[in-house]
């Protein structure tokens, strides 16, 4: 298979300037991934330009502008790109690919208000304003994206003295936005890989371990429930060999996120899934 071409910061900036020139209305797009790292001198080149918008109207405007610039939709995407979950994936004649996300990135994390506030304006071209996503948030995205180069990029990002207090706060925010802690299991796996490959440990691993343990405790209780047959606290505790007080604590958490519901006869599973996709 022929390797896809790589593009440097100069090329990416020129493409974004041209894109802004054909927009008819204002669009603010947030640059994440390799493109944002290239502009900060952390990567020489990247294969893709990953842009995030936060409204449907801006998505539609950007789609029209890309069409006018001659970008064509990529119809056959590899498994990695299918997992990426971009709302739009287009490519120009040079082979430069632009992935556009609307609010949720890679079917994983939500581009939160905090992420928007931490971003820094990089360029303004006619109707297009491009902001660089904070390195802390790029690091967090890479912990869940599970793409081939993400662990290498995480290693690079750690060397920049990331503000892990901001990362901790964003993890807590994502739990609320995604209605669950399942994504922290993927963060834990990536942190393990980071240590295996580079012997690097990060200052927020204790927080991730705590959330991971909470998720597993909640899952242990949820897995015995069905959507049809209610179970009492006593029955759940007996089934799992747990203290009733522990079961009550997990049920309260599950009920808060809408995963279980209490009926007159006991607790049932609602069948709800969180917003994080594998």
TrEMBL record:
Gene3D superfamilies per the UniProt record, alphabetical: 3.30.460.40, Winged helix-like DNA-binding domain superfamily/Winged helix DNA-binding domain
SUPFAM superfamilies: Nucleotidyltransferase, Winged helix' DNA-binding domain
Pfam family, one: DUF6036
Name this polypeptide is given: Helix-turn-helix transcriptional regulator
InterPro entries, sorted: DUF6036, NT_sf, WH-like_DNA-bd_sf, WH_DNA-bd_sf
Domain DUF6036 intervals: 24-179
Lineage: Archaea, Methanobacteriati, Methanobacteriota, Stenosarchaea group, Halobacteria
């Amino acid at each position: 298979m022929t390797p896809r071409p790589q593009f440097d910061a100069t090329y990416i900036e020129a493409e974004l300037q041209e894109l802004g020139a054909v927009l008819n209305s204002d669009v603010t797009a947030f640059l994440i991934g390799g493109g944002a790292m290239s502009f900060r001198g952390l990567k020489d080149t990247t294969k893709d330009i990953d842009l995030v918008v936060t409204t449907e109207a801006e998505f539609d405007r950007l789609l029209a502008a890309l069409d006018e610039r001659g970008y064509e939709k990529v119809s056959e995407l590899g498994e990695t790109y299918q997992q990426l979950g971009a709302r739009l994936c287009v490519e120009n004649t040079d082979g430069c690919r632009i992935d556009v996300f609307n609010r949720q990135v890679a079917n994983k994390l939500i581009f939160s208000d905090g992420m928007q506030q931490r971003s820094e304006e990089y360029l303004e071209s006619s109707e297009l304003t491009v902001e660089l996503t904070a390195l802390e948030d790029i690091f967090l995205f890479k912990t869940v994206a599970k793409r081939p180069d993400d662990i290498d990029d995480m290693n690079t990002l750690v060397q920049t003295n990331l503000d892990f207090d901001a990362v901790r706060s964003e993890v807590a925010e994502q739990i609320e936005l995604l209605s669950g802690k399942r994504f922290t299991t993927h963060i834990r796996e990536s942190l393990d890989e980071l240590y295996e490959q580079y012997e690097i440990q990060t200052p927020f691993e204790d927080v991730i371990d705590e959330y991971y343990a909470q998720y597993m405790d909640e899952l242990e209780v949820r897995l015995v429930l069905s959507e049809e047959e209610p179970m009492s606290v006593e029955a759940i505790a007996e089934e799992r060999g747990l203290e009733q007080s522990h079961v009550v604590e997990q049920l309260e958490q599950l009920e808060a996120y809408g995963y279980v519901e209490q009926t007159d006869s006991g607790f049932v599973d609602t069948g709800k899934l969180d917003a994080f996709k594998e």
